[in-house]
Design brief:
- The protein is about 55% helix and about 5% strand.
- The chain is built from 11 helices and 3 strands.
- The chain has helices at about 15-25, 40-45, 50-65, 75-85, 95-115, 150-170, 180-195, 210-215, 230-255, 255-270, 275-280, and strands at about 120-125, 135-140, 270-275.
- A 3-stranded antiparallel sheet has the order 2-1-3.
- Bound molecules: zinc ion.
- Zinc ion (ZN) binds near residues 109 and 163.
């Protein structure tokens, strides 16, 4: 019926078992290598929709075909997954100076993801540009999160601010490369304060912002249900959360400066590091020799 837009349909992404079933359907006519484990693949695609999973299978088959393989292998799924999550890899590499800054920026994210508790497991770090990003630090949730704790969110903010903090620590300046990080943390902190009652100062209250407005970044144009004074307090509270986590990120990187430098140097040499490589660096084993 026209004019009835009040009923909202929320499509939640399928759970692990459902993802596995969807993968089974889409791979029915695809020749798979025996090592391909759909249950494992389902576990590594948290948040993927049915369409994403279909896309994943098609993309993996395409990659395998391009290499003239008769069967789709695990690495084809891995590469297809990265392409979907991170965007297409660019062929041209960064200039030397940009490479240095990006390496420290990503190393900052990665090191904090390893050091801080209650963060999503680190998957890989790369300074090969993907999509609009110069570098990427990929964390993959190991569980389906439908409800998140304040501690998890604060650590997530610190990890996201870690890139910029590393630039400040090493180069004593900031680059524009942290724009997406800043946007993400500001939005998270705003939700913590306004929607999830996680600020003691603002109390157990919802301050109506409307998610769709936030996505369009037009919240100022929308009527709000609180005073100018409250709006100022909210802004102060958001800034205080972000400042505290920025300081936490900076202090932690300063304390672990040696590891930060080692990760960044390894990135400059090898461009991409898997979680295992970072573990080795943190365990004190040098990986540079492998390059
Ligand atoms: Zn970043």
């Amino acid at each position: 019926r026209p004019g009835r837009f009040d009923r909202q349909i929320v499509v939640t992404p399928p759970h692990k078992k459902a993802r596995e079933d969807i993968l089974k359907i889409h791979t029915q006519k695809v020749p798979l290598s025996p090592e391909v484990d759909l249950s494992r693949l389902a576990a590594r695609t948290v948040g993927f929709s049915g369409a994403d999973l279909k896309n994943l299978v098609n993309e993996a088959a395409l990659l395998a075909g391009r290499k003239n393989k008769s069967r789709v292998e695990v690495e084809d799924f891995e590469n297809a997954r990265d392409k979907i999550i991170l965007g297409a890899e660019h062929k041209e590499m960064l200039e030397e100076e940009e490479k240095q800054i990006t390496a420290y920026h990503e190393a900052g994210h990665a090191l904090l993801a390893k050091l801080l508790p209650k963060t999503d497991p680190l998957q890989k770090v790369t300074i090969i540009p993907h999509g609009t990003a110069l570098g990427v630090t990929e964390q993959v949730p190991d569980i389906e999160r439908h409800n998140v704790e304040k501690e998890y969110l604060l650590n997530l903010i610190a990890v996201r601010l870690g890139g910029r903090a590393a630039e400040k620590l090493i180069f004593h300046t900031y680059s524009s490369g942290a724009a997406a990080d800043l946007k993400q943390v500001t939005q998270l902190a705003r939700q913590m304060v306004c929607q999830w009652g996680m600020s003691e100062r603002m109390g157990p209250v919802t301050y109506r912002l409307g998610e769709e407005h936030m996505f369009l970044a037009r919240e100022m144009a929308q009527p709000r249900d609180f005073s100018e004074h409250t709006a100022r307090l909210i802004d102060e509270e958001i800034l205080s959360i972000l400042r505290a986590m920025d300081q936490r990120a900076y202090d932690m990187l300063e304390r672990h400066r040696e590891e930060l430098v080692e990760i960044a140097q390894a990135l400059i040499e090898r461009e991409t590091l898997e979680d295992g490589d970072i573990e080795q660096i943190l365990a004190g084993e040098r990986v540079l020799a492998v390059a």
